[in-house]
């Protein structure tokens, strides 16, 4: 239903004051069908106009004028204008005569003046459907003389890629694609650019993350197999017809540096989806109600970017105090509650990847089934996984000749991040010596490193103990088999 028709229906139903959000297109209307099926003359008054109150007071009587008044935020502080707005609204109670209808045009989150709250009804302009965006695409390609091959699936994919944007922004994005993208109109490029535009509106709480140079994940066979199944069903109409629900996402618990964040980036890269990162800590604002409002805007923005991957890194830090006792008047609990409801009820194809290092800091409500499809524990890598990780980081730096098996044995008890740093440290050593990297450089760097499995051994064992039986192991070994802190590591010889 068009915005004009929605406004018309509400006015017919007897609405006193309509506050229409994101409704610039209303200002361009010549007339709106309102009241008894008749088209009424329109008067547009700007709230920034110093004579706004006077113009409201001198509206023509008996002709049923439709008044479009914009900039609520400006005139809302003017008691005289607010009074005149209310008087126009109260005219509608007089029966037997044609009275003026009032529509206020404003942006989201604008505070409605206290004197109008009881009489105002807020309408959020609906974003265009995929069918409407397909019409916009057809108009664009006809104007540009572009031919899109296929039986309609390609056109649908292009329209779906910009779903969540107003029609004018979608049209501009189509035009930019033909100029800036070497491949022209391409769904992947459109989705990425859409994600950037939407994220930019959230003031840093939601950011677009590039995934083009993300390395592969070493090991984690169970997790990778699980993701391969979910990837086939994510955003798939065939999967929905088969009876499968839209995959919700997963919660990754584990040791710092074990590759949890890398998993989020890898999912987005392999599935060809934009990656949005939600900084839960930046959802909180200083004004009353601001935190809850920004939470709603962030989740709506994520859905506008769908299909996409939403990465919530170290979620326990952003929601510290959600279990009560935070001393913030309950703001954290309300934000947490809003996120829980969205995780449970969302229908849009937004695959949420949340990571956490400290399980005791997570509220139990987050862990129950329904918020996420699965909870995985990512422990310290076993020898085969360390070998795969070492191979990835050495080959990324053009050092395929280094013995991966020896590096794996020399880094027992290391996380993936610590293995990477051993390779980097070895490169620094070789560069300072004026020669290429040798195996002894990497092993020497590993021997000089005190990994987290030693410095935080008790914390890691406690986390492993909690995960055993409560979370699915990301690797094909038991969650407590990834490292053996008690056993003295026997270092291999260097040949």
What does this 3D model show about the protein?
This protein has 495 residues and is an alpha/beta fold. It has 4 domains: 3-124, P-loop containing nucleotide triphosphate hydrolases (Rossmann fold, 3-Layer(aba) Sandwich), CATH 3.40.50.300; 130-190, no CATH class; 249-375, P-loop containing nucleotide triphosphate hydrolases (Rossmann fold, 3-Layer(aba) Sandwich); 383-473, Orthogonal Bundle (Helicase, Ruva Protein, domain 3), CATH 1.10.8.60. Helices cover 43% and strands 13% of the residues. It has 21 helices and 14 strands. It has helices at residues 3-12, 52-57, 72-75, 79-90, 130-144, 153-161, 167-180, 187-200, 221-233, 237-242, 260-271, 290-304, 315-318, 331-345, 364-367, 383-396, 404-410, 416-432, 439-447, 452-455, 457-467; strands spanning 17-21, 32-33, 39-40, 42-46, 66-70, 101-106, 120-124, 206-209, 249-254, 275-278, 308-312, 350-356, 374-378, 472-473. The strands form 3 sheets. A 7-stranded mixed sheet has the order 8-10-11-12-9-13-14, sandwiched between helices. A 5-stranded parallel sheet has the order 4-5-6-1-7, sandwiched between helices. Helix 5 (130-144) crosses helix 7. Mean pLDDT is 77; it is low at 28-39 and 478-495.
